[in-house]
Write a structure and sequence with these properties.
It contains eleven helices and twelve strands. It is α/β, with parallel strands linked by helices. Strands 2-1-3-4-5-11 form a six-stranded parallel β-sheet, sandwiched between helices. It starts with a helix and ends in a 13-residue tail after the last strand.
Length: about 350
Amino acid sequence: MKKKLLAVISAALVASMLLTGCGGSSKDSAATNDAATTDDASKDDAAADDASKDDAAASGDASSAKIGMVVNNSGQDPYQTSYYDTMNSYAKEKGVDLQILDPKGDATTQANQIQDLINMKCDVIIVWPVNGETAVASVRAINKAGIPCLTANTNVAESGEEFIKCYVGPSNVEEGKQSAQAMVEALGNDAKIVEIAGPAGYTTSLERSQGLKEGIEGTNIQVLDSQTGEGNREKCQQVMENYLVKYGKGELDAVFTFDDNAAFGAWNAIEAAGRQDDVKIFAAAAGSYETVQYVKDGKIQATAMQSPHFDAKAALDMAVKLAAGEEPEEFYNYIETPVATPDNVDSLGLEEW
């Protein structure tokens, strides 16, 4: 670089002398050459900066990565709040420039926020879809912008999977299926149940309900009713209260809930009605560590335990790898979610979160 500058300066001096001798303007010539020198230096600095970024990417240096993420609704339940907090703290720990946005459960807001992340020129974008179908257009836009994208915790609808690199999170179908199988073992093949499903249009809701169907397939278990609790504990309690009025003692054996938050609401209704001996609770998955005590006390008979800490960290780790140019070995990267029952919960060795 120094040699190049010296050569340019020498050329400028010679040109200046020649132009002065011929009656030309040495001021204009010097300005032109100074501009050329500055332009060359800027190009060299930019090239050096690009090379530095390439080296950082090749080494997987997290500090060079700008990761964008849209969550679902961080204040909706303890799991999402813990996930959001963990994602922020883990990004700071790894030195990642994390741009995390919360649409508060609104699909339109989420779509606008994703466009904002695209405009920020993030290296990778993580999407936790509010609605799996409407998120397809957003992941397509991310892909068109040339930005690697992954979905976390909740996947996009199948038609959008071609636009993402991978999915990181629980197998929601497997969670529902394993908890349903535990229900069959506990109640037998002829039980009568109701379902409190998750938010309508939410991929996780659909997948966990699918898991319930697969888990009871081949049995005589009857699903008498299924209503959404909208992911809200109070709403789930109201739904359960209505079920208990509609189905008297001896007419209902259990309720299968979308998650532990719904299970807590169902328990409040069942306990208030004095029906805890004849209506049992099974939850597809649990994200609050508080649920362990509910299982130990027999308030929840079975649920897949899902750590928001592990879930969030796994997603950010994958995003950093993608930012470094690595390709995921698998498309579906499932986290471990063991099923807890009153009989085995103490032996699972669950770490508190």
